[in-house]
Amino acid sequence: MRALMWLFAGFSLFVATNWPLPKSHAQPKVDVAKSSYTWTGTINGSPVEGSGILTIDARTGKIACKGEMKQFPPDVPIHTTGFSIYCICSGNLAKEVGTAANVVSMTGGNYTSVRDITIRDQTGKQLGRVIITGRIEKKGERDFAVTATIRGSYKGPTDCVKVSGYNHLLRQRKAGLVEGEYLQIVETRDGTPLFLTARLSYAWKEEKARSRAQQMMYIDWSTATIEGRKHTLTGRAFVVATDVEGAKKE
After folding, report:
1. Is 221 exposed, middle or buried (0-12, 13-18, 19+ CB in 10 A)?
2. pLDDT digits 0-9 by tens, 190-244
3. DSSP secondary structure, 82-151, as one string
4. pLDDT, position 225
5. How many CB atoms lie within 10 A of CB 159?
6. Residue 71, domain member (yes or no)
7. What is the Cα–Cα distance from 119 to 226, expressed in whole angstroms?
8. Could you tell me if residue 247 is inside a domain?
9. Could you tell me the pTM of the whole model?
């Protein structure tokens, strides 16, 4: 089981960094999108409060995040969120391939994003669960505001040092709703893996389902600097949207 999980994570990273883009496809009108985050909530009954900014370049795939948590439980490493606190809207300006639609094209830029993350050890024992719910509002062609709530619990290792990349397949389930899931691996200082399984969804107001799906091939974090409550992250968030057969029509 462990071998399969590591193979999946490795494949996710390979695809995310090597996915070819059609040369004939027009470049996006907007190169860099900025999302301004605020976070509130509780983990283990302790308060969470912070703010940050994520930028993503739709042409190069470069992603950069900076944030500061004024309050965050000291016994919960932020790695156990898979850094998803920054990524609940990073598909906004995904490169559109064929007739696929990225999140902004589907939603108009105003939607709700949810990540439901379960953390387990090598034996399958559940160590925690974190749910991130964000309301995304489009403020301008390049600018988005994200108001996120975090809640959950975690009882496990606190010496986490590395988070893997991942990919996910989103399918439209009904009008105004797409859902998907993915796997990430977190490493502790001695190399012990923790397994993060996540379910995600984007929801928005839409009267009629478009019967199309999008596949997002997604990222690796090349650097992550955690200094107290301040975070600086960089990496490749080369998000690609592509049509996938089997979207459910309702």
Report:
1. buried
2. 999 999 999 999 999 887 666 555 555 566 677 778 887 888 888 776 656 555 4
3. TTTTTTTTTTTTPEE-TT---HHHHHTT-EEEEEEEEEE-TT--EEEEEEEEEEEEE-SSSEEEEEEEEE
4. 82
5. 11
6. yes
7. 20
8. no
9. 0.81
Pick the more confident residue, 101 or 193: 193
Cα 172 to Cα 50: distance, rounded to the nearest angstrom? 32
CATH of the domain at 174: 2.40.155.10
H or E segment and range at residue 74 = none
Q: Does the residue 250 lie in any domain?
A: no
Q: What is the DSSP string of 158-224?
A: S-EEEE----EEEEEEETTEEEEEEEEEEEETT--EEEEEEEEEEE---SS-----EEEB--EEEEE
**Distance between CA 196 and CA 85 in Å, rounded?**
14
Q: Quick check: 78 and 233 in contact, CB under 8 A?
A: no
Q: Is residue 248 in some structural domain? A: no
